[in-house]
Amino acid sequence: MHFESPIKRRQSRQIMVGDVPVGGGAPISVQSMTNTETCDVDATVAQIRAIADAGADIVRVSVPSMDAAEAFKRIREEVSIPLVADIHFDYKIALKVAEYGVDCLRINPGNIGNKDRVRAVVDCARDKNIPIRIGVNAGSLEKDLQKKYGEPTPDALVESAFRQIQYFDELDFHEYKLSLKASDIFMTVEAYRKIASQIDNPLHLGITEAGGLRSGTVKSSIGLGLLLMDGIGDTLRVSLAADPVQEIKVGWDMLRSLKLRSRGINFIACPSCSRQNFDVIKTMNELEERLEDVTIPMDVAVIGCIVNGPGEAKEADIGLTGGTPNNLIYQDGKPDSKTKNVSLVDDLEKKIREKAVLKEQEMANIIVKN
């Protein structure tokens, strides 16, 4: 299918996180966060590289201590992807990592301290041209807001955010993005919708503490999907109690599904039934595992029988339709070759990789012409 996304994105101002533009119509960036011990430099660097290889644009690293700040310095020297330092409680840590080449500072208004401490961070960020992410979280609201509202609410999140926005405006500092996260989908969505209509700063999306791989993916897809459909969001992080690489994969799947960004293979696959002429589930598992390294955007249809197979295959770059005695491979909507079940995965992988090379050459030629 070649329909364009009908989503009209919210207009926001742009900031730069390293060399990645956030807001201002730039592609929605995908990010994750390391879960290694930051002071274990080798492990953290290895995880950052794995996250980057999965397609991350930005990686966040927790820096909970001065020892971690010193480790961050070494980490920064080892990787090239933009890094965000996650800072809580001690504003001096933010000042230290700013010296070490951090690309963005994430501070929490609920625990970073009084205005003088925030001002020190802002002044440092201004001097070094570092953007800030104001991260409001339902689990760490200011005590007076907890008392005022009785419990976290969308309005409480928005009020917390505006306290920092007002102070940043007083300091004439505008290079910031904002997040308002809760583990509750409805609270998060309403808070983002409220703030989106009142400011033009870029918004970082996320459902915090969403859960494990399966449940967290579902919750995040619903919550972030609602916001993305509204055109809200300039960068996102899918929060899962899982390997951070999985967060990147889910984030890309969201954007690909909404036709907001494309990377890698978009598989169209039937859920399988007794009509299937080959094992669809096994075939899909093998193809996804083998083809994770393919980053060129492609549509690949894998359909187990002739009911919907030919129709889906005609709309895909590469298509497979189950048949007897042989299955049929399509290329660019036209029948290309036949394959037996025993060699099906190998044959299809070969066709997909050949097509990826051709598409990459076509894209390179377009860039040269322009």
From TrEMBL:
Residues 12-252 form the IspG TIM-barrel domain. [4Fe-4S] cluster binds at residues 270, 273, 305, 312. Pathway: Isoprenoid biosynthesis; isopentenyl diphosphate biosynthesis via DXP pathway; isopentenyl diphosphate from 1-deoxy-D-xylulose 5-phosphate: step 5/6. Pfam families: GcpE, GcpE_C. Its EC number is 1.17.7.3. Binds 1 [4Fe-4S] cluster. It catalyses: (2E)-4-hydroxy-3-methylbut-2-enyl diphosphate + oxidized [flavodoxin] + H2O + 2 H(+) = 2-C-methyl-D-erythritol 2,4-cyclic diphosphate + reduced [flavodoxin]. Its cofactor is [4Fe-4S] cluster. The keyword Membrane does not apply. InterPro entries: Dihydropteroate_synth-like_sf, IspG_bac, IspG_bac-typ, IspG_C, IspG_TIM, NO2/SO3_Rdtase_4Fe4S_sf. Keywords: 4Fe-4S, Iron, Iron-sulfur, Isoprene biosynthesis, Metal-binding, Oxidoreductase. GO terms for biological process: isopentenyl diphosphate biosynthetic process, methylerythritol 4-phosphate pathway; terpenoid biosynthetic process. It is an enzyme of class 1 (oxidoreductase). GO terms for molecular function: 4 iron, 4 sulfur cluster binding; 4-hydroxy-3-methylbut-2-en-1-yl diphosphate synthase activity (ferredoxin); 4-hydroxy-3-methylbut-2-enyl-diphosphate synthase activity (flavodoxin); iron ion binding. Residues 266-353 form the IspG C-terminal domain. HAMAP family: IspG. Converts 2C-methyl-D-erythritol 2,4-cyclodiphosphate (ME-2,4cPP) into 1-hydroxy-2-methyl-2-(E)-butenyl 4-diphosphate. Belongs to the IspG family. This is 4-hydroxy-3-methylbut-2-en-1-yl diphosphate synthase (flavodoxin). It comes from Marinomonas aquiplantarum. The gene is ispG.
